Amino acid sequence: MNESPNPTASVTDARPVLAVSGLRVRYRTEEETIPAVRDVSLDLFPGEVLAVVGESGSGKSSVAHAILGLLPANAKLEAGTVSFRGRSLLDMPRNQLQQVRGEEIAMIFQDAQSALTPTLRVGEQLAELFESHRGASEDDARKAAVDVLKGLLADPLRVADAYPFQLSGGMAQRVMIGMATALDPSVIIADEPTANLDPAVRHETLSTLEGLRDQEDVSVLLITHDFGVVARLADRVAVMYAGEIVETADVRSIFRWPRHPYTFGLLQSLPDMHRPGRMATMPGHAPDLATLPPECPFLPRCNKATSQCRTEPAPRLMPVEGSDGEHMVACYNPIAVSLRGD
Ligand SMILES: Nc1ncnc2c1ncn2[C@@H]1O[C@H](COP(=O)(O)OP(=O)(O)OP(=O)(O)O)[C@@H](O)[C@H]1O
Ligand code: SF4
Ligand SMILES: [Mg+2]
Questions:
Q1: Left (φ > 0), alpha (ψ -120 to 50) or beta: where does 271 sit?
Q2: 92 vs 88: CA distance, rounded Å
Q3: What is the C-alpha to C-alpha distance for residues 190 and 205, in angstroms, rounded to an integer?
Q4: Does the beta carbon of 301 lie inside 6 Å of ligand 2?
Q5: Local confidence band at 271 (pLDDT 50, 70, 90 cut-offs)
Q6: What pLDDT score does 272 carry?
Q7: Which residue has a Cα nearest atom 1 of ligand 2?
Q8: Pairing status of strand 187-191 against strand 105-108
Q9: In the sheet where 87-88 sits, what is the strand order?
Q10: Which ligand is closest to the CA of 315, given by its number?
Q11: Whose atoms come closest to the Cα of 334: which ligand?
Q12: pLDDT of residue 6
């Protein structure tokens, strides 16, 4: 199945809580098939935040959905394994997977408003979690639901009685974080948790996520466009391009010594890492996944390309020299200077 080394494996002795290997996802539409995830492997270790970054369409959400068995009907999981504490999630019966989802692994979805059930009051949705997963009585579940909201919002009783459409974007986001963390999961997959939030709400959401990060027993797979969020929360970073991980390293190495020309370009074009906003843009366009050539998918945008890049198949992830395998890059001619030029 997966022949490539696991790019996000740490050299620590800890066993990953979540191990993804050789994941391949393809979408079928009337016109074409889109290989959205192409041999992605990653390990998430206990207590760490692993950020997955990349431009729109690079396959980040598809990886998250595949891990939790939430791919849409037109998607095909072609290959790969997902192991959670040694149990295979992809082979798990549906009812067991539902139990794991929410209780042990929770997801904060990219669009909080539409991920909440529109016809149920917020308090009912939260209470349902305690009733179905913990066997709580109706009264106890309601109390537990309000307790969750108390930690996140100024007016928990009013929010509990509201329908999702009555919430602002920021309130919905916090409700979603409350739902994801209500049952104390050990893994949280957060898909763009700060996207489209105004600066004040973004700041509050980041503080909430920082609180989660500081809990030793919680691991977070953080999907984001926002390098300010990466700098503030992540321990390690995996950079995705065209459905693949092209670079991975600890957060300091990524910011200081990015080796892939794509990572380097993204960081170089950042206006200000600490300002809220979407990812920096760089010249050129992401490739059309349906018609990917065999060469490096970054070739048309790359100013480091050599003849090897034009004649050989796309490079595979390899350890950066001297990094003990903690820093991996898929590039024939990686950047050799630091981002500051030294
Ligand atoms: N249901 C679908 N049907 C067909 N193609 C899809 C579907 N969902 C995603 N895709 C395609 O798969 C590719 C990866 O999409 P995905 O949503 O995983 O990217 P992403 O990195 O999460 O992007 P964004 O940052 O915009 O959320 C894109 O080319 C997208 O158009
Ligand atoms: S392999 Fe070549 S084309 Fe691809 S990113 Fe590296 S230098 Fe650029
Ligand atoms: Mg996405």
A1: alpha
A2: 6
A3: 12
A4: no
A5: low
A6: 60
A7: 331
A8: parallel
A9: 33-44, 18-28, 75-84, 87-88
A10: 2
A11: 2
A12: 59
pLDDT tens digits, one per residue of 93-126 = 999 998 898 889 999 987 788 889 999 999 999 9
Query: What's the pLDDT tens digit per position in 47-59?
Result: 999 999 999 999 9
Domains in the chain and their CATH numbers?
1-92+238-250+257-342 (3.40.50.300)
Report the C-alpha gap between 131 and 137 in whole angstroms.
6
How much distance in Å is there from the Cα of 242 to the middle of ligand 2?
Answer: 13
264 lines ligand 2 (CB under 6 A): no
**Residues paired with residue 24 on neighbouring β-strands, in sequence order:** 38, 79
Q: What's the whole-model pTM score?
A: 0.91
Which ligand 1 atom sits nearest the alpha carbon of residue 110? 27
Residues with CB under 6 A from ligand 1: 27, 29, 34, 36, 54, 56-62, 72, 74, 110, 289
For the stretch 117-170, pLDDT in tens is 999 999 999 999 999 989 999 999 999 999 999 978 889 999 999 999 999 888
State the ligand closest to the CA atom of 279: 1
Instruction: Please tell me the residue having the least CA distance from ligand 1 atom 7.
Output: 27
Closest CA to ligand 2's atom 3: 299
Cβ of 242 below 6 Å from ligand 2: no
